C-alpha cells in the first residue's frame, strides 16, 4: 500500500517503515494546504496532529485508513470518515505512565516551590544571615486533596499514584450534570475542596474552557491547576489572571490552545515562579514513545490483514 506519515518529526525518533508499505512517504511536517497533495494516491495516512478535514477527505477517494499517532483523535473528522468508509485507529493508553508521572512531578514542584527555591539558591542564599532561605511556604503532598477531571487510563493512573502518596482523590462529575454518579463528586464540590486540580478529559464543545474565570473564582484559594490534556480545556487569560491575583497558587501547563504558541504568548513571558509551562512533552518518555511506535505499526499491519484494531470510527 501507499502509506504517508504527515508529521513524522512530531515523534522524537523515526518510525520504522511499515511492512505493508509498497510506497513509504515519511514527511517531517505537512501544512494544511499540502494535505491533499501529500496524500494523493495514498491508501493509508498516519497523522499525529495534522488535521484531516471533510474538505480534504472528499478529495482523497483512495484513502481507506487513517492511523492517528496519538491517543486523542480530535484532529480527524470522524463523521466524514464514517460517511466515506474510512477506518480510523488510534493508540490508546500508550502514554499513561509518562503523563501520570509528569502530573505527580508537577505537584511536587509547585507544592514545594522548587522553581522558586532554585532561583533563591543562586540569588538570596549567598547573602542569607542563616543557613537556609525561607521564602514561599512549603506544602506537603501527603494529605493534599487532588481533584481529577476525567477517569480514563491517565486519570485513573494519576489517582493510583496520588493515593500511594497519601493524597485524597476526588473524581469530578461533568460540569452541569443533573446527577452525580457513584464514585464521583459534584463538579463545584471538587472545585471548592481540591488543593490540586488536574485535567484528563477529551476536548469537546462541552469541555472547552472547562476551567475559566467563573471556575477559578470558585476554587479553593491557592489551589494548583495542572493541564496535560488539551490546551483549550482552560481559558488561558483567566489562568494568568488567577496566578497574578493569587487566587491560583500555581499552574503547570504542558499544553496550550495554539501549538506551537506565538512567540509573544503571555504565559511564556509571565516570569511567575509558580507557573510551569512545558512544550507538550508529558507523553514523551522513551518507553512511551517506543509503545507508540510499536502500536502504530501493529495498527497498520492489522488493517492490511483485514482485521483492524484500536478502531475509533
Provide a descriptive summary of the structure in words.
The protein is α/β, with parallel strands linked by helices and 313 residues long. It has 2 domains: 2-94 and 287-304, Rossmann fold (3-Layer(aba) Sandwich), CATH 3.40.50.720; 96-277, 3-Layer(aba) Sandwich (Rossmann fold), CATH 3.40.50. The protein has 10 helices and 11 strands. It has helices spanning 35-38, 54-57, 78-84, 96-111, 114-122, 153-164, 187-193, 213-218, 236-245, 286-304; strands spanning 2-5, 23-26, 44-47, 65-68, 87-89, 145-149, 168-171, 196-199, 223-227, 248-253, 275-277. Strands 7-6-8-9-10-11 form a 6-stranded parallel beta sheet, sandwiched between helices. Strands 2-1-3-4-5 form a 5-stranded parallel beta sheet, with helices on both faces. Helix 4 (96-111) crosses helix 6. The chain is elongated and about 70 Å long. The mean pLDDT is 96.
Amino acid at each position: 500500500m501507499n502509506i504517508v506519515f504527515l508529521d513524522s518529526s512530531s515523534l522524537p525518533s523515526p518510525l520504522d517503515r511499515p511492512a505493508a508499505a509498497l510506497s513509504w512517504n515519511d514527511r517531517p511536517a505537512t501544512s494544511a494546504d499540502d494535505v491533499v497533495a501529500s496524500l494523493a494516491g495514498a491508501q493509508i495516512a498516519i497523522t499525529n496532529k495534522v488535521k484531516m478535514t471533510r474538505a480534504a477527505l472528499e478529495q482523497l477517494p483512495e484513502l481507506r485508513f487513517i492511523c492517528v499517532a496519538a491517543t486523542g483523535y480530535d484532529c480527524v473528522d470522524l463523521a466524514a470518515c464514517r460517511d466515506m468508509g474510512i477506518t480510523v485507529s488510534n493508540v490508546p493508553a500508550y502514554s499513561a505512565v509518562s503523563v501520570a508521572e509528569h502530573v505527580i512531578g508537577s505537584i511536587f514542584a509547585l507544592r514545594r516551590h522548587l522553581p522558586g527555591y532554585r532561583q533563591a539558591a543562586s540569588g538570596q542564599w549567598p547573602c542569607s544571615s542563616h543557613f537556609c532561605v525561607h521564602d514561599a511556604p512549603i506544602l506537603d503532598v501527603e494529605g493534599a486533596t487532588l481533584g481529577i477531571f476525567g477517569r480514563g487510563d491517565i486519570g485513573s493512573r494519576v489517582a493510583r499514584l496520588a493515593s500511594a502518596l497519601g493524597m485524597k482523590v476526588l473524581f469530578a462529575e461533568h460540569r452541569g450534570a443533573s446527577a452525580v454518579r457513584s464514585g464521583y463528586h459534584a463538579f463545584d464540590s471538587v472545585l471548592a475542596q481540591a488543593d490540586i486540580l488536574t485535567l484528563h478529559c477529551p476536548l469537546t464543545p462541552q469541555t472547552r474552557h472547562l476551567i475559566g474565570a467563573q471556575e477559578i473564582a470558585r476554587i479553593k484559594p491557592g489551589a494548583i491547576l495542572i493541564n496535560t490534556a488539551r490546551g483549550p480545556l482552560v481559558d488561558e487569560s483567566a489562568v494568568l489572571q488567577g496566578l497574578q491575583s493569587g487566587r491560583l497558587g500555581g499552574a503547570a501547563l504542558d499544553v496550550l490552545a495554539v501549538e506551537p504558541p506565538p512567540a509573544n504568548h503571555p504565559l511564556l513571558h509571565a516570569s511567575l515562579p509558580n507557573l510551569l509551562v512545558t512544550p507538550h512533552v508529558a507523553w514523551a518518555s522513551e518507553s512511551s514513545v517506543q509503545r507508540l511506535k510499536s502500536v502504530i505499526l501493529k495498527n497498520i499491519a492489522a488493517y492490511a490483514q483485514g482485521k483492524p484494531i484500536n478502531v475509533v470510527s
